[in-house]
Specification:
The chain is built from 17 helices and two strands. The protein has 339 residues and is an all-alpha fold.
Length: 339
């Protein structure tokens, strides 16, 4: 794959890649959706109503797809992976609900966030319900190893969210701190999703670790592109507000690169816009100018490509098959996506 730059990616190409991946696991993914709908039910009316609001918005379903396709790559022919894929999506959805409250986000997947519609209290509590439901599904599966993998992931994700809170509005945040945060906040669930696909297939430890490495690397690449898109995407394609990270004072990799390369006057600018409420008209445009000056968005994309190549290499031990081909194409989607 040729190196990509920060020129706008093609949403149609991104959609076609994702469509091909979803088509490969179409029947299983439909079963996952049925499990999600069934497990969201509650006599407390607001719970299914609010949870359905986010689930109905669609989403890429990459994490549950990873569980499904990893299991198929490993030759699994049972149905445990379907329930566990739903469990993965519950964990992800719960974190989205909490994220949107913490970030005061107004758009998610092109629709109003749950907190924008219902306020902050209900989404936090329904997010807790979804976490609890996920653990019920894990216990019903009956595997202590699966329970260990996903419960560890849930704990690490929570740590990552706290790390993000601590690094926000802090212009001294290092690249190492940023990568530690995204590995926990984002990549851990990608890793767990791929790992349990191999675990349910009872594959050797080397296969399990290879798929875990694949998931971790595309998770990091996915977040790096997410952070690049926050400064370089079209809002309609992205499905959420462009510039949210800037408005929240988050030190993502593009900003960390610009900070490290900037002169004293530029660092004063970043300190003001990141660490204080003194944001003025034209600040976002100035931030974009500095990111372009230091090639920060392209540098972030190039870093994502490094992790994409690591993900591809992790699949080398598996024979050529439609599932492996789709997982290789998923790497391209994560790096070249428009949303």
């Amino acid at each position: 794959m040729s190196a990509r730059t920060a020129t706008a990616p093609d949403p149609e190409v991104s959609r076609a890649r994702l469509d091909r991946l979803q088509a490969l696991v179409k029947d299983e993914l439909q079963r996952v959706n049925l499990v999600i709908v069934a497990e969201m039910q509650s006599p407390v009316e607001l719970i299914p109503q609010l949870a359905q609001h986010l689930v109905a918005a669609g989403g890429k379903r990459i994490r549950p797809i990873l569980t499904l396709i990893s299991a198929r790559l490993c030759g699994y022919s049972g149905d445990r992976h379907v329930n566990l894929a739903a469990c993965v999506e519950f964990l992800h959805t719960a974190t989205l609900m909490h994220d949107d409250v913490v970030d005061a986000s107004e758009l998610r997947r092109g629709r109003a966030t749950a907190n924008a519609v219902w306020g902050n209290k209900a989404p936090v509590l329904v997010g807790d319900f979804l976490f609890s439901r996920a653990f019920q599904v894990m216990v019903a599966d009956g595997s202590l190893e699966v329970l260990r993998i996903l419960s560890d992931a849930a704990a690490v994700i929570a740590e990552g969210e706290v790390m993000q809170l601590l690094t926000a509005n802090d212009s001294t945040t290092t690249e190492d701190a940023y990568f530690a945060m995204i590995e926990a906040k984002t990549a851990k669930l990608f890793e767990a999703s791929s790992r349990i696909g191999a675990v349910v297939a009872d594959r050797p430890a080397a296969d399990v670790e290879a798929l875990a490495e694949y998931g971790k690397c595309i998770g990091i690449a996915f977040q790096l592109i997410d952070d690049a898109l926050d400064y370089g995407a079209e809002q309609q394609a992205l499905g959420k507000t462009v510039g949210d990270d800037f408005a929240d004072g988050k030190v993502t990799l593009p900003v960390a690169i610009a900070l490290a390369k900037g002169d004293a006057a530029e660092r004063v600018f970043w300190q003001r816009v990141l660490e204080t409420d003194d944001r003025r008209d034209g600040d976002f445009a100035e931030a974009m100018r500095l990111l372009k000056k230091h090639d920060a968005i392209n540098a972030t994309i190039r870093r994502a490509e490094v992790y994409g190549e690591r993900a591809r290499r992790a699949l080398d031990r598996f024979p050529a098959c439609p599932e492996r081909a789709a997982m290789l194409e998923l790497v391209d989607f994560c790096i070249e996506r428009a949303y």
